[in-house]
Amino acid sequence: MSLRSLSKLDLVAAAFGLIVLHRYLTRKSKSSLPPGPPGLPIIGNVADMPTKKEWVTFAEWGKKWGGICSVNLLGRTMIIINSSEVMSELDKKGAIYSDRPRLEMGGELVGYSDTIVLLPYGQRFRAFRKYFANHLGPVPMENHIPTIQHETHRFLKRQLSKPGDLMQNLRKLAGGIILQLTYGITVEEGEDFFVNLIEGANRNFNEATVPGAFPVDFFPSLRHLPEWLPGMGFMETARTWAKATAAMVEVPFAFTKRQIASGTAPPSFVANLLEDEHTLSADEIRNIKFVASSMYAGADTTVSAEYGFFLAMTLHPGVLEKAQQEIDTVIGNDRLPTLADRPQLPYINALVTEVLRWNSVAPTGVPHASMEDGIIGGYLIPKGSIIVANLWNMLHDPETYPDPFVFNPDRHIASNGKPAQQDPRTMCFGYGRRICAGMSLAEASLFAAISMCLAVFDIKKAVENGIEVTPVHENTSGIISYPENFKCTINPRSEKAVALISQEYQL
Ligand code: HEM
Questions:
Q1: Would you kindly state where each structural domain of the chain is located, as residue ranges?
Q2: Which end of the chain has fewer beta carbons closer than 10 Å to its terminal beta carbon, N or C?
Q3: What's the rounded Cα separation, in Å, for the pair 313 and 497?
Q4: Pocket of ligand 1, beta carbon within 6 A
Q5: Could you tell me which CATH number the domain at 46-502 has?
């Protein structure tokens, strides 16, 4: 039968049939899971899961299966997002994709499930976010500028006297700012009790959350088996680590309470809120205590970004020179740059942005969990799915950032009628209602550290046996990723720089 032999009515009926068929097929695809690597019966894709640098494997899956793909982990769906468009759809439909997966070892047994990062989405979570916004949001950040600058100046002194201890110095810097803002605690030079206490607990948490390290994460009922059974040693570990978590939550809080009682507490998150303690309920006091302990979550990320800055400067002397020229021209060398200089230092701002893009601090973000069935990118996201956003891949997409592995602050400055490349801050801090709660503090801390260091230090490749050592930009695995250890030399730029570092803080 040819088309010509069909009546008009037949054609209309056929067209209608095609439309219905198309609708049916489209509807069917909308209710199916995103594509992904085929798995095995029962265990699904467990054996396909990468154990290190998961962002690289996830990016390969993205190339093969598209911007949204899925795997099956022992019956649980994991959705992997490789495209910024899909992530912004998740962002817009944020409410139902803003839970966190339950972590049996790190969360429930070791005790981090009461800190904001793991807190289930709901009323208590919203109360926590409000506390964060009221203390660390963009507006209150103005009050914290003196603390950020003062602690950064202390860092310059430490770096001058111990140039080989860059990582320890950066840890003290990030920890010092957060402890001051949270509890009014001033960190001591050398070993600091509070920094050691909190970093110890956070180290346990990092170990507890290494994927696959604790079978109880996959089989939660294991925790109810008798402890004399083989393989149950994790319960003893969990108890020891839970004690460290409790100390991290209680000890600095008690310190501030003692200071309040003796009338010596400087302003801080805890001191400001406990001023009228008698008006607060027991639940509110408990919430304040856990919000405070959650604030230190930002220290590791900031340290990684700052370490990334030193790596970038070691590898790109041209960028260092251009940045120093901007500071010398705008600020001169009679004083240190301050956060008030931000609008006058476009190249330094672009450099900070490029640090956030080039050295992905949280390459696969922090996993979210979906609270209801939903549709994203035309695919079904079943309730309870784990959602992982491959931020590293989005920040290194050559379509968005040509030559993505090159450190180039100029890409963030509009010029010759060409707009700047997409602002990486729309990606590197996560998305939806779980977007980083410390973004303003992160950016202010980074600007202060980067601008002040550029003003007074030269950062160069280390020389060993007369040969320059060129570091390789490699990153450690895990939720928070650091540049692998590298060598560089950090020397004051001049006698005047030494004098600026050594003077009393007077910004
Ligand atoms: C360079 C610095 C930083 C980067 C790149 C960064 C990045 C991120 C990312 C990607 C997330 C996960 C967001 C999501 O789940 O979608 C996150 C969450 C979080 N960040 Fe940051 N962060 C930084 C610094 C900080 C600082 C300084 C603080 C606080 C003092 C902080 C506090 C938090 C908290 C509390 C969460 C959990 C939010 C929640 O679960 O609702 N971060 N951050």
A1: 46-502
A2: N
A3: 18
A4: 116-117, 136, 178, 294-295, 297-298, 301-302, 305, 361-362, 365-366, 368, 428-431, 434-438, 441-442
A5: 1.10.630.10
